[in-house]
Amino acid sequence: MAKNIKPRSTDYNQWYLDVIKAAQLADYSPVKGCMVIRPEGYAIWEAIQRDLDGRFKDTGHVNAYFPLLIPQSFLAKEAKHVEGFAMECAVVTHSRLQKDPSGTGVRPDPDSKLEEPLIIRPTSETIIGHMYSQWIQSYRDLPVLINQWCNVMRWEMRTRLFLRTAEFLWQEGHTAHETAEEAQEETLRMLDVYAAFAEHTLALPVIKGAKTDAEKFPGADTTYCIEALMQDGKALQAGTSHNLGINFAKAFDIQFLGRDQQKHHCFTTSWGVSTRLIGATIMAHSDDDGLVLPPRVAPTLLAIVPIYKTPEEEAKVRAFVEKLLVSLVGQAEVDAGAKRLSKDGVAGYIFDRVSHQRIVADWRDARPGDKQYHWEQRGVPLRIEVGPRDVDGNCFVLKQRLDRSKAVVPVGEASAAWLSAKLDDVQKAMFDKALKFREENIRSAASYDELKSLLAEKGGFVRCYFEPNREIEAKIKEETKGTVRCIPFDQPGTPGKCVYSGKETSTQVLFAQSY
Fold first, then answer.
1. Domain locations in the chain?
2. I need a surface site. Which of 30, 191, 230, 250 has the fewest CB within 10 A?
3. What per-residue confidence (pLDDT) applies to 337?
4. Per-residue pLDDT tens for 28-44?
């Protein structure tokens, strides 16, 4: 067990922070509530971006960029929207600084006070709605399918690295459509994109469903979500897709001349995921020894750890490792990697030119155990260890980070295709393990007492009949800390008794405590 990481069973919250620190994914910023994403953490975000961006473009979306600053009056145009975000907004009131008259420091220049305060975007529906009203004139201009990658700010009171910070990175898609049917189709299409990405790329099983009115996005007609289960039994909302109806179109006068030569409001949608997906990946897969990463987002796929004592053994192992690397990445990349040798002795070799995922050979002047520990804590999916006796046997030892299994592999088996297959096996095993955990932690409740007991003692998802109601949901949250995570798409089709009121209802929901 890692000495620098608190066991999950002892303190799950501290374990999570310890894993991030040990893997050097992120650090605290001098600005309270914000984080610095370190290179290893940002590489994971880049992998998420790369994969999702391709999926967006495959469905006809294009990228654009909209301003960070939004006129305060824009937020007031959609009543529910401003109500939902008012307490989280950061406000810009002046355009420049001046030296403080006291002679120490600086202060806002009183003469630079803005006529209208500007809001640092908590989300961009308002300013994008304004621009769409300028761009859309006719049904021929529709649909508009735009996504942007950016940062947003929501002044959170309780923050946690990746999961909830004042500033975070995300993508937000914003689309405009001619008909309500097209907008609904878009909303569900993007939810499917998120679910497929989470399961295929992050090895994160998710449940698709709708939010209750109490939990939906401010200003939306309907919010759909994907919900994942973390190892401590808490749920995490991993992505949302919102059907905004004509609410924002009315607020920002997004109208078009229809086929009937009449003016109509557009139907709009928005959808987004953020850097909290990194937090979800950490909490769903990692263990008491550190980070465990799915191969499809791991910056480093394979770490080769040479083992030797004498200069003669080092030369022998080096020659063998070079031969092994040639079989995995090719001679040209081996030659290029030699030129990129880091000052501390770690050589990196590009395995996949599209994703820039790499293989490393660790020639640092350190004990083999320290090197193994280093790559293990960083979640590298596979590790190869090679010593003089392995060279004599023309083989190497392959170790898996996920289950610590090891196998002796003849060097002749090593190839790019062989490594890809091994990584696919790890990816599948991670998904299967997470799915098994989730299925074992979905329980049913037939009464409110049973719901309270399961949430308090077992955690996980609790499935039950429930008729959504804002006041009742607020009371249940106060008493249990549990919320309706979603109304799953897979409904039973037969009525039952509401877990709270006892009245007959045909709706089943998933309750859970959540992040």
1. 12-69+121-285, 295-436, 444-512
2. 30
3. 85
4. 999 999 999 999 999 99
